[in-house]
């Protein structure tokens, strides 16, 4: 039986730290441009209590998202100990393409996957490179696609990357800007025969009738900008709607994936969930276990959001790599462990994977 097995992981965590205190001089405004009644200190403290974020990472000015993806990809390739010329697919998940610091244009020509392949100096024309736009669940969906190629017999080795530089699309006058960060994570999936390891099942959903624009591109909250500045658009979200949507729908999608696998919930050792909001993630996991009438096990959910923030497509692969490399205290994955990967994001899209390590 053919399985799609993760044989290597890698991540790139930018070196620039942005502490919560560094937002103390921002002019935070409501969506209508009015001022908040509270001081920035109170706004920041409330933000921390809800999201859990204390600091986040920003990329150096000279690096774009494709650069970050390349750095993570190199580490994953080295970890898997493969020749990059043997790759059949390079799939890069992102949302905004390459955006140079202090510019307003997104650059996706050529695709980020083509740029990563170029940086890796891969000559093989049969290594197909393409991008996937699927919101924050993009990397997880890329893994699902790579498995489909492997199961169909048209690929043996795939590189899946999630990379983002959200720090370049945030409105400094929007308090939600404190959530976002930069980073990249990657993995190698390989075809393996007669192994118990690999992807056991998955589930994906897209909700668009009412939910498509819960995350969107919008203008700055500052209505006093000059004419050209007013035309710049930034990442925006309806936070409360996303929170309620995620709590209602993500646990159900996770249950669908787990039930398809035939694995009992007690066998799940770790859940790697998109690092969007600490309280939201904790509530999702609690509701997921409630569906099975079970309490949440201790240390079931590794977290990186406190120090890395929300780097969208990069959060799950980065978190997975950190745990596999022993870089998160009191968290590990052992051979034979069943883990879950899950994410939710713009679209609105949800997905989950059950995987035996």
Under CATH at level 1, the class of the largest domain stands as: Alpha Beta
Distance between the termini: 16 Å
**Main beta sheet:** 5 strands, mixed
The number of helical elements comes to 9
Overall pLDDT: 96
CATH topology of the largest domain: Peroxisomal Thiolase, Chain A, domain 1
Q: CATH architecture of the largest domain, please? A: 3-Layer(aba) Sandwich
Strand residue percentage:
25-35%
Would you identify the regions where 5 or more consecutive residues have pLDDT less than 50?
Answer: none
Number of strands: 13
Strands ordered across the widest β-sheet? 1-7-6-4-5
Strand pairing plus helix content: what structural class?
alpha/beta
**What does the radius of gyration come to?**
20 Å
State the shape.
globular
Estimate nothing, just give the exact number of structural domains. 2
Q: What is the assigned CATH homologous superfamily of the largest domain?
A: Thiolase/Chalcone synthase
SSE string: EEHEHEHEHEEEEHEHEHHHEE
Q: Determine the fraction of residues in helical runs and give it as a percent range.
A: 25-40%
Salient structural properties:
Peroxisomal Thiolase, Chain A, domain 1, 357 residues, Thiolase-like, transferase, four-stranded mixed β-sheet, 13 strands, 3-oxoacyl-ACP synthase
Give an account of the 3D structure:
- This protein is α/β, with parallel strands linked by helices and 357 residues long.
- The protein folds into 2 domains: 2-196, Thiolase/Chalcone synthase (Peroxisomal Thiolase, Chain A, domain 1, 3-Layer(aba) Sandwich); 199-356, Peroxisomal Thiolase, Chain A, domain 1.
- The protein is 29% helix and 25% strand.
- It has helices at residues 40-51, 65-80, 112-119, 138-151, 227-230, 239-261, 278-290, 305-308, 315-324, and strands at residues 2-12, 16-19, 55-58, 89-93, 128-132, 157-165, 182-193, 198-206, 215-219, 233-237, 268-273, 338-345, 349-356.
- The protein has a 5-stranded mixed beta sheet, with helices on both faces. A 4-stranded mixed beta sheet has the order 8-13-12-11, with helices on both faces. A two-stranded antiparallel sheet has the order 2-3.
- α3 (112-119) links the parallel β4 (89-93) and β5.
- α2 (65-80) crosses α3 (112-119) and α6 (239-261) packs across α7.
